[in-house]
Amino acid sequence: MMPKQAADDRGFVESAAAGADGAARAQETAEVEVAASVRALSKSFKKTRVLEDVSFDVGVGEALVLLGASGSGKTTILRIIAGLEQPDSGSVILHGRDVTDLPARERGVGVIFQSYALFPRMTVQENIGYGLRIRGRRRREVKEKVKSLLELVHLEEHRKKYPHQLSGGQQQRVAIARTLAYQPQVLLFDEPFGALDAQTRVRLRREIRALLREVNVPAIFITHDQEEALELGDRIAVLHAGHLEQVGTPEEVYNRPETEYVATFLGAANLLLGVAAGGRVELGTASIEAGAESARFREGQSVKLVFRPEDVHLSLTGALPEGCRRLTNGVIEEKHFVGAYERLTVRLDLVARLPSAGEPPLYEVTINTPETSLGVPIFVTRPKPEVSATALKVGDRVAVCLTAFRVLPNFALASERASRTLDTQK
Amino acid sequence: MSSAIATMRHVRGFDVVKPFSLGMVILLMLPLVLLPLASIFIFGTSKGLGSFWAALTAPEAVFALKLSVVTSFYATLFNVLFGLLAAYVLSRYMFLGRTAIIVIISLPTAIPTAVAGFALLLLWGKYGLIGRFLPPDLQIMFTPYAIILANIFVTFPLAFGVLMSVFETMDRSLEEASATIGATRWQTFWHVTLPSLRGAIVTGALLTFARAIGEFGSTILVSGNLAMSTQTAPLYIFSKFNEGQVEAANAVAIVLALFSFVIFFILFFARDWLEVK
Question: Can you list the positions of beta strands (E) in A152-242?
C-alpha cells in the first residue's frame, strides 16, 4: 500500500497541485504552462490490469521520458495519448482540452513509431507532405512546407528516395518531419532508438534533443533504457507494473529514488536491511549516521539503506575523506577490471543483530564461497584516478564509508523487488 | 569400382550426385510437362500457319474465346472488389463465427468443379430451390451470367486467400500512423492500405483470370454449351474434339495455352515489382 501512496504524493507535488478536476487551475499556478497531461489513467486488457491511476504532466517545450521494463504499461500510455487505445477511466488533456473521447485523427498528436511506419510507396517528400495533403492544403503551400522541413532534418538530397533506400537514422528523421508538418501538440516517441546500433543511438539521441529544442514541441519518449532516459529527459517518469513509481528530473530519480524499484532500475544499487534508531540506521552490528534521511521514519521501523556502487569510498588506512559517512569495515573479495572503472565486491563485517529471544532473525545471508563466510557483500566501483592512486587487492581489509545514500521503508510486498545484490530473506 | 566411386565423391568440385539427380528431374519433367505442351504447338501448326489462322478465325472459335475473356473479366472484377471487402472485414474485426466464414469462403477450393456446377444448377435452375420461384426472364442458368457465377464460385477463394494473407501480415502501424497524422479511414485506406495491397491485387486478379479462362467442369454444366451463345473456349475445344475437328480444337488450345503462359510469366517474373518493399 505504502509505495503506491508515496508515488501518488509525488505525482501531486510534481503536477503543481493539479487535481483530477483542476486542469485549468493547474495552468494558472504552474510555473511552466502544461502542454499535455494524463489524469488517473486506468486500463485493463481482459483481466490483466496494465495501468492503474497514472497521472503526469508535460510542460510546453519539455521532454518527459516514460521509463519502465517491458510490460510496465508505458506503450499503453503512449497509445492512449495518441488515441489508438481507449482508457477504462481517466482522461487525456492536450493544451487544456479534454481529448479522451476524440479519435486519433482529431487529436493533432505526432507519433514516431518504433518501426517509423513510413509509407513504403511514397517518397521522402511525399511522406512528409502527407499530413498537409490530406488536409487539402494547396499544392504550393505543401511544397514550401516540405522544403523547409527537409532542410530542418537535413534530408534535402534524399527527398526523392523511398524509405527503404534510407538508413535507420534518416528514416527516423523523415518520421519526425512528417509529424512536424501539421504542427502537433505533442510528439510521442515509441522506443525511438530500439532498432539502431549502440553508436548510432547515442548520436541520434543528441540530434533529437537539439531538434526538439529548435522546434519547441513537448515530447514524451518511452524507453526501457535507463541511460537513454537520463540523457533524453528533462524529467523522467518511472513506471513499474502499471504504477507510476516516481516522477522527477534525472538527478532526482537517480540520486534520490523514492522506491526500491526506482533505485535498482536506474543503475546498480546496494540494498542493506536495517532499523531506524535515533537518527541513525542500525545494520546489525554496524550503524550509520543518517540525519534527515532517517527523520521520516519512526523509531524502530524496518528500513533499507540504498546506495550506489560509485558512492562507496574504500580506505586502506582508515582515514576517511570529508563528508563520507563511515559504515563499517570489510574485506575485498573480488576485483574486476571493466574498462572505465574497477568493480569490486566487498564483504562487510555486518552480522545480523541478534534477535530477541524467540524472534526470528532480522535477516540471514547465505553466500556460497569456499569458506562460507558470514557478512554481507556489496558492489563498489572506483574510477580510474582513484584506482591508480591507491591500488587494492583481493584480501585487503578496508574501511567503508558512503558519500551518498537513501533510506527507504522496507516493505515485504510482492511488488517490491527482491534485492539484486543480496540474497536476503526476511 | 565401388571404391572408385567413393573416392570420386570426395574429389573437390565433382559430385556425381548432382548431374545424376538433375538428369532424373529433367527426364521426368519432359514427358510430364514439356512434351504435351510442345505437341499442341507442333500439331496445331503442322498444316501451316494459314490453316491455323483459318481455324482460329472461324466465327465460333472467335466467339468462344471472346466469351471466355469477357466472363473471366467480370469474375475477376467481382473477386477483387469483394475479395478486398471480405479480407478487410475478416482481418480487422474479431467476432463470433469469423473462422466459420473464412472456412466457408475457402471451401470451394476443395469441391470438384463438376460438383460446384451441379450445385449451382440445383439452386438456380428452372426446378432449383430458388430458380423455381423466378420468372422466366430472370432465369440465369444456360446464359453467360451462369458462366460468370460459376467462375466466381470456383475462383473466389483464390483471390480471397491472396488478399487475406497480405491483410493479416500487414504492418498495422502504417495505418495507425496515417490516423494519428489526421487521415480519415477512407483516406488511410486509399493512400496507405491500398498501395500496400497492389501486389496482392494483381496476383489475385491474375490467378482468378487464369483459373476462370480455363474453367471447364462447372461451366459445362451451367452454360448448356450452346455454340455462338454460351460456349466458352474450353468447351469449344471439347466439342470440336468430340466432333473430330482436331484442327479447330487445336487452334483455340494454342491461344488458351499462350494466355496462361503470359499470366504465369507475369506472376513469376514480376514478383519484385509486385512485392511490398
Answer: 186-190, 219-223, 235-240
